[in-house]
Design a protein that fits this description.
There is one protein chain. The protein is mainly beta. The chain is built from 1 helix and 23 strands. It folds into 2 domains: 109 residues, Sandwich (Immunoglobulin-like); 155 residues, Immunoglobulin-like (Sandwich), CATH 2.60.40. The longest helix is centred in the middle third of the chain and has 12 residues. The N terminus is likely disordered.
């Protein structure tokens, strides 16, 4: 396997990734090159349109498939659900000597979660069911934002945009603009018969058709503050929480996407809505 030394400098929650020697993975249009990662894939990005990297976005899986047509070399960046980041040079080849790549944890180039802000936890009772919540903020203005969030939770809901799957629902209940901020109130409800442990909930601005990978784009929206996000939603319970985001606007072709992943499980929900 050919190796190229590339210096990668990227901001990941305030951290810097180290210089790494990147492996080259080869692909063509005739056969699938399979990449098996240690954890489920959350995001995969290729640099050139002559490469296509696909994986099961809805249910999540550790397997990703790479195909290519003739063209210039590019890069593949993969982020798994545990926050680990993997990067490779990808190149077209008429003949493929290796079709299956089993990626080891040692191949990661960093972790996006290593410098995340501190988390404080508090138990909250919801109709007799314990819902453990966490509050996170990277800003010193966390207390002011928290106070605003608490007030918003007391307002009646003005939206009911919901995605349901396997007894778990994710809904948008309120969206409030204040100066340069957006307060997005959401709810996770669990009637699945099994407790739901939250891994990550991320928000994106998306453009294009997911079925046409070359034209599909995801842009993750930075979260300024998280208020009352449940860690565990017990069966029969519901947990409401708020994400504070920078003020954003959408073009006619753009949509809001919210992706919820379960920790230590395979369940996931993706809510996509034009605002």
């Amino acid at each position: 396997m050919k190796k190229i030394v590339v210096v990668i400098i990227a901001l990941v929650w305030g951290g810097v990734l180290e210089a790494k020697e990147l492996d080259t993975i080869y692909a063509n249009e005739k056969m699938n090159t399979a990449l098996f990662f240690p954890e489920k894939i959350r995001q995969g990005i290729v640099g050139n349109s002559n490469f296509i990297f696909t994986f099961n976005r809805e249910d999540g899986q550790t397997l990703g498939l790479l195909k290519a047509t003739k063209g210039e070399d590019s890069t593949l960046l993969v982020i798994t659900t545990d926050g680990n980041i993997y990067s490779y040079i990808i190149s077209y080849a008429e003949k493929l000597d290796v079709l299956n790549h089993f990626i080891g944890l040692s191949e990661r180039i960093g972790n996006e979660k290593r410098d995340k802000p501190s988390v404080t936890k508090a138990p909250v009772s919801a109709e007799g069911q314990l819902v453990v919540r966490k509050e996170t903020t990277p800003e010193t203005k966390g207390s002011a934002l928290s106070n605003n969030c608490q007030k918003l939770l007391q307002l009646p809901e003005r939206k009911n945009i919901t995605k349901r799957k396997k007894g778990v629902s994710l809904g948008i209940k309120n969206m409030v603009y204040e100066k340069n901020l957006v307060y997005l109130q959401m709810e996770i409800k669990n009637t699945s018969g099994i407790d739901f442990e939250v891994d990550t909930l991320e928000i994106f601005k998306v453009n294009g058709n997911q079925n046409k990978k070359s034209s599909y784009q995801e842009l993750q929206i930075k979260v300024l503050h998280i208020h009352n996000l449940p860690e565990i939603v017990k069966n029969g319970a519901a947990g409401r929480f708020i994400y504070v985001l920078p003020k954003f606007t959408f073009s006619d072709d753009e949509k809001l996407m919210i992706r919820l992943l379960e920790s230590k499980g395979s369940r996931s929900l993706t809510l996509i809505r034009r605002l």
